[in-house]
Each structure stands twice: as C-alpha cells, then as structure tokens.
Amino acid sequence: MKNKNIFFIEIFITLSLFSVFFTFSSINLASMLGISKHAAEKVIDIIDTFSTVTTIISIITAVIGAGAITAGLVAVAKKMIKKYGKRYATMW
C-alpha cells in the first residue's frame, strides 16, 4: 500500500511539473540544458521518434525517484511537438 501511494505521489509531481513547464515555456531548451541549437534539434528528433520508449523510461525513473524533472521535460517536449511542431519545440 505504501509503494502504491508513493507511485501516485510521483505521478502527481510529474504532472505538476509538466503543467509548470508548459505554463512557463519561454525557457530555451538549448540554454536550459547547456547544449547547442543543433544538439537541441537532435534531442527533439529523438523524443519525437522514440516518444513511447522515452516516456516509459522517464516514468520508470520518476517512480524510482531520480527523474521526475526529466519525465516532465519529455512530456512537455512531446506536447509541444504535437501542438507547434519540431522547430518551435527546439527553440523552447
């Protein structure tokens, strides 16, 4: 029962982070991660291509407790790719 509660707390935190990141999406992915624009484009391509696998890995790391922020970033990137396209998601 305790593990189930921890799981739901992690999911809540992940969804909360997703909503915060989506609300304040003026942050540039390249500057936030300290990578070049070309590298940011590759990150977006990978997330777009392997979105299901990336989401599963991110959720697993969030449940373990090591990747709630990563899961939030991946979810925001996927949403932005669907809504605005790869070019906008790269500049985010």
UniProtKB/TrEMBL annotation:
Major location category of this protein: secreted
Residue intervals passing through the bilayer: 7-35, 55-77
Source superkingdom: Bacteria
Keywords (A to Z) from UniProt: Membrane, Secreted, Transmembrane, Transmembrane helix
InterPro entries assigned: Bacteriocin_AS48 (IPR009086), Circ_bacteriocin (IPR020038)
Compartments where found: Secreted
GO cellular component: extracellular region
Stated name of the protein: Circular bacteriocin, circularin A/uberolysin family
